[in-house]
Structure formats: C-alpha cells, structure tokens
User: Fold these one by one.
Assistant:
Number 1:
Amino acid sequence: MQAVFRAFERASEGTIIVDRDARIVWISERYARRFGIGDPRDALGRACEEVIPNSRMREVVSTGQPILLDILDAPHKPLVVIRLPLKNEAGEVVGAVGFALFDELGSLSPLVSRFLAMQQELTAARKARPPQRQAKYNFSNFVGVSPATLELKRTARRAAATHSPVLLLGETGTGKELLAHAIHGASPRAHKPFVSLSMAAIPENLLEAELFGVAAGAYTGADRRDRQGKLHIAQGGTLFLDEIGDMPQALQAKLLRVLQEKEFEALGSNDVVRADVRIIAATSRKLSELVKSGSFRADLYYRLDVLSISVPPLRDRIEDLELICETVLEGFAEARPGEPYELRPEALAVLSRYHWPGNIRELRNVLERAILLSDTPVLTAASVQAALAASTGSVAARARQPEPLSPADVPTGEGHAVAMSHYERGLIERALAESPSVAAAAKRLGIGRATLYRKMAAYRIGRWEPVNGQAGGEPPGGAEDGPI
Ligand SMILES: Nc1ncnc2c1ncn2[C@@H]1O[C@H](COP(=O)(O)OP(=O)(O)OP(=O)(O)O)[C@@H](O)[C@H]1O
C-alpha cells in the first residue's frame, strides 16, 4: 500500500492528506510551495480550504465518495486532481488523499483549453449583460387559498395568456403590483422586460419624459443624447402603469394613442416609434367615478377596461390571513439568524378581527412592528395588539391625538395591551422631548439604548440626534427600513 502511495506521490505534482475534519495532516513540499507555503509543516493542522482555497477534500471526507477527475483552479495555472477517501478496516472514513496529477496538462490540453475558454466566455457574458428588468414575483408569491384568491389567480392566469391590456383595481396594499409581475411572468412576454412607472411617484412635469423619452437636444438643457423612456425600455415586454388614475390629462391622450395606434413619439422628436408593449395598469381609486367627474378620459378607460381584475381587500379573504402571516414571518426570519417566529392562535384571532384598511402592506408592517416590540420570537395577542395600536392605518392610531400620558387619559375600551402601548409611546416621546440625546432618554427611562431605538422604530418615532449642536442622523433601523 505504501509502495503504491509512493509511486503516485512521485508521479504527481503534489499530494495532500487530510483527516476526517478536513484538516491537513500531510502535504508534499512541492504542493505546499505552489500555494505559497515555504515549509509544509506550517500547513499541518489547518483546514484544507485555508491553504487551498478551492479544495473539495471536505466533500470527500463528508460523503466518503472519491472525486476521480477534476480541475482545480490553482494559482498561476489549473491542475488536474484526483481525490480519494481513506477508510479504516471498519469502512469508516478517516480522511482523504488528493493528488495533483498534471500541471502542464499537456495530454488534457484540448479539454482544459475548452474549459478555460468557456470560463472566459461566461465571465465576459456576465459582464456584458445589461441589468435585467425581469418580473420579481410569480403567482406562487401571491399567497392565499380562499375561494376569492383562487378565483382571482385563475382570472389573472387567463389574462396572462392574452395580449390585451389589463386593468387591476383594488384598495391600496392588496397586491396589484405583485399580480402585475406574476401576469407578465406567466405571459408569452416573460423573457422580455417588465418595466414599472408609478404616476403618483413622479412629478407631473417629468412624467411625459419618463414615459415617452426625450430626443437629443429637444429643449434647452436636454441631453445631447436621446434619453429612452419607459415605453422604449419595455419594448417587447410589459409596462406596468401604477396609480393610472393620477395620470395627467395630456398624457392620457398620448397613452390612448399607444393603445389604439400602437405608436408614440419621444419628446421633441417627429419620429414615430412602434410600440410593442403590453400595458398593465392599476389603481386604488374608483376609475369609473373619475370618468364621471371628467378627470379621466372615458375612451382611455374603455380601452384599459377590456380585461379588468378586481383584487379583493384582505378583510374579504380573511381565510388567507394565517398563510400570509406565515409567509411574511418566514421571510423576516430568513433575514436574521435564530429561532423562527411563531404566531400564537390568540394573536391570529386578534389580527382576524381587524379590518385592514392598508391590506397586506399594513399586515406586513404590523407583523414587523410586533417583532420589534416583543422580546421573544413568539408573537402573542398582546404584542400584535400593541403593534396594531401603533399602525398608521388603525382606528386606534387615528384616535391617538394628543398622546395620553396619564392612565386616566387612556381609552379604557381598547384592552390592556393597546392601552399599554399608548402609554409607552407617550412615555418615550416625552423622554425624548425632554432629553438632549437618545442615550440620555434611554438612561432616563431605565432601558438600553438599543431597546429604545427598537421601540422608536416600532412606534415610528423619529428623532434627530444632536451632533456638535447640529441635527445629526436618524436612528438606525428606523421604521422606513426593510424587514428586520
Ligand atoms: N397575496 C399576497 N401574498 C403575499 N404577499 C402579498 C400578497 N399581496 C400583497 N403582498 C405583499 O404586500 C405588499 C403590497 O403589495 P403591492 O405593492 O403589490 O400592493 P398594491 O395593491 O400594488 O399597492 P398600492 O395600490 O398601494 O400600490 C407587498 O410587499 C407584497 O409583496
């Protein structure tokens, strides 16, 4: 056996032996030098990846399976390597041995040069690829099992298969944008761009340029180069127009032309561009009423209304609540190590009784706040009640002016947890108002600074920290941050 090993060792470009924990127990001098280690003894006892960054010896000891032929990306040039498990008489893996067989790779040069060429092509292709504007969500992200949700998904899937415009109607936070992504992703245009533009998010005077683009030198101060509009970027794909009810009248006429004639012109250009774009529009406003009041063109409304889909509010599909909560909490848990979050049945019951004016967006915020407010990963009725009380969409929150500080001022009909959260919020706001810094407020309240920041985020209390007497930074992990 030893003779076989020696023969292999002599013929190879380098040898390494690891124990069952993938720690180096022996390495040939030549091999150690290749990885920048002058004295092989310096490598002993170290994890194999510390010395050989791309080593797969750990895989061999953990699976007990050999890797008979592989290319190792080593410094200067790749090596052809062979890795074998070492077993004791009982058949247990006690370590592994690796031989670097070729370094000139002469006999394998066609294979290796193909490998290297492919690797270079892949890197170049990755670099050259423009950032893709693909749909971020699919139908499986639209969680829910209620009859209303199942029917909604059926209708949306049918819509995905057609080329007609789609109009998504529903209260804020019901998932219209998510659904637009899913429709695009299930449509024949799925491999083309998905581009969104919200009428409410862009100032009116910039919307036209955003949508249709600007020709070079169109007006003083315009770029010397063309600036592509969203319609152009979405060519071949889908353009999602959010809050379409807020679209200015002048733009409505131009959008109608896109839908009817399938063409448009960039600002300051006479060139007519063909628009091969599917429009999905959404609004949380009552479009038919906007038509009646004259602020939305009737002809555009009828063009968009070919396939209209009403997304029901959460309160009308409350059977979905448990599943949505689970999904949201799983998403939050992924972002941080530790135990998974648990929603107690009584907490779910509290959430089921709420009317959710902000729908699933509000539900996400409430769950996030409940996590911030509780010291354990278990969400109880009290923690969700407290989070609900702080919810901007909640009745309790709207009734919160001014902040009560005396127990006598706290509304009694709201239950202990809600009353306590009113009280706590007031206490924190007063301490902050009367302290020179958050740290001082925390001290005054007798709680840690991190705890105070957590509670400020949960109650959405902003605070400018004085730095050298000037306004400084916002608290870390503020309420506008993503999931904690
Ligand atoms: N059925 C669902 N399952 C899981 N998450 C959902 C569902 N519906 C909505 N969401 C989540 O709720 C949030 C709000 O959804 P979205 O932005 O799609 O709503 P919207 O109706 O477009 O709101 P707005 O009218 O205010 O623009 C997002 O984080 C989305 O991922």
Note: The pocket of adenosine-5'-triphosphate is lined by residues 142-144, 170, 172-178, 242, 282, 284, 324, 327, 360-361, 364 (CB under 6 Å).
Number 2:
Amino acid sequence: MLFRRLCFSLSKSCYLPFFLSSKLTNPFASLNSNPGFISNCESVKLRFQRRMSVNSHNLVSENAASSTMDDPRKPPVVPIPSPETAEPIEVFRALEASLGLQFSSQPIFPKPGPLIIVISGPSGVGKDAVIKRLREVREDLHFVVTATSRAKRPGEVDGKDYFFVSKEEFLSMIQKNELLEYALVYGDYKGIPKQQIRQYMEKGCDIVLRVDIQGAMTLRRILSKSAIFVFLVAESEEAMVKRLIDRKTETKETLLMRVATAREELRHLNEFDYVVVNKGGELESAVKLLESIIDAEKAKVQQRRVVI
Ligand SMILES: Nc1ncnc2c1ncn2[C@@H]1O[C@H](COP(=O)(O)OP(=O)(O)OP(=O)(O)O)[C@@H](O)[C@H]1O
C-alpha cells in the first residue's frame, strides 16, 4: 500500500523530489526556451494525433505515447509516422522531435581549402603545355605568373607567361622578401611572388606553381607537406629530347645544357608526391590525371593546410 502511494506521488510532477525535477530528467528541457522547436513539436504531435484517429496502424502505439507522456521522468515520445504512407516532411519533423534536435543544413564536411599544386619536371616534358590545358578545363585555379629576368621568347606575353623584369628589379624583390622562392636558372633569375599567391588563395582559388626541379626542392623545404608536388615526365628520354629539339627555342648550347640537366633531375623523382607521364600525343590524359589528383586531394579527411 505504501509502495503504491509512493509510486503515485512520483508520477505527479508537483510531488517530485528535487533530484527528479523535470529539468534534470527531461533531455528536452533545454529546448523549452526555443519557441520554434515547441511549435514544431506541437504541430507534429497534433497532426499525428489526427492521423492516429484515422489509421492507427500507421503509428507507434497511442497507448505507449500517452503513458510515457504522463511520466515526466521520461522524454516525451513523439510518434513517428510510417515513411511509406506519411509525407516525408512529417517523418522528418517527427524524427527531429523524437531526438529533441533540429537537423542542421550545414555541410557535414567543410568545403576544402585551396590547394597549392607544384608542377615540376625536366625541361621539355611539357609543363607549360599541360598547365595551359589544365587552366582551360578547370575553374577556380590560379596559375602563378613567375617573375623572371630572362629575355622574352617570341610569342610570350608579359604578365601572362612571366613577369619580365630586369636583373636589378629582381634583386630588389629578393631584398624586400617578396618572393616565396627564387633561383638562378641557366643564368637567369626566376622567382614566385608571395603576394599573388595570398591574393588568389583568399578568393578560394587553387594555386598552380610551375617550377624547375631545383625550385621544387626548395619549395619542398619551405612548404613541406602543405603543398602537392607533381613530377611531370615524358614517356622516355628520347621523346623528351625530341620535343625540346622540335620546339626550336634553344640554341645548341642551351639544348645540350638542358638535356644534360634533365638526366640529373630525374633522380629527384622520389621527393615528389605524384608522377604524371605526359605521353606524346596524349596531353589530354596527362591533364585528366592531374585533375584526378586535385580531386582526390580535396576529398582527403586530413586536409593540407598552407600559410604563405
Ligand atoms: N603530350 C605531348 N605530346 C606532344 N607534344 C607535346 C606534349 N606535351 C608538350 N608537347 C610539346 O613539347 C614541347 C615542350 O613542351 P613545354 O614547352 O610545355 O615543356 P616545358 O616542360 O614547359 O619545358 P621548359 O621547362 O623548357 O620550359 C612543346 O613544343 C610542346 O608543345
């Protein structure tokens, strides 16, 4: 008899001892201050009660719902309509009410930050050709225009292919610490302006840097694992030399120097993350592979974070 009285008194909220107060026992309590949530729950509850009276088979037992609602120690049970017959929005709202939360429309995985892609490889493998095509097929990509003290080749445009500057101007940029990396290549300076990278990363663009092997090794030390390093090769040494000859941009002296250097440079392959073979006549495949690499990097759980 005493036990029954105790049970009865516990079922009435006004007789609850402090440790069983609704605030402590009801996980929905924190949501009571959210009028939107309450009206959602109420409207869902009303709609379901109406529905229950029409077709009780579609709903979780009415008895179960009412018995738990009487007990303030248990969270209110919101009946969930059958997904087969109910409107999807009703099921959605009922799930929210049952769990006591609102499903967020925020992205589950944040948008990946911009990447820095360093493309390198021996002279004549097709770095310029691959990058030119990549820029055509891929949006949100900024190709960093390198500053150089070398003379302009026929057809090259200042500010598009390179920023052509005098040796004195280049030395001044070094002094002002305006370059991420620079090197003396075949007697000419080449360097990467920092400001350009910052500016385009802020806009959310991926950054493509085209550097020779010497430059890539320096960047590896500076950027470490925060950038992606891609080594571009031709399918064979023979193909690479033929491409350089066919390009008709080199004197016999620079041709000899480039070919000799290329042999040496192939030894650095292991220091790169990826290798892309730019096969003769298959430029498109090389570009596709490069795109896949970028996409895969963007899908990584542990994203690379870069600060310039
Ligand atoms: N897949 C390919 N098939 C045929 N020819 C190609 C291919 N890729 C590039 N070429 C050609 O090979 C030559 C060398 O290419 P490119 O100038 O792009 O090389 P690079 O690596 O940028 O050389 P460098 O470092 O000397 O500037 C160019 O004439 C280019 O049109």
Note: The first helix runs from residue 2 to 10.
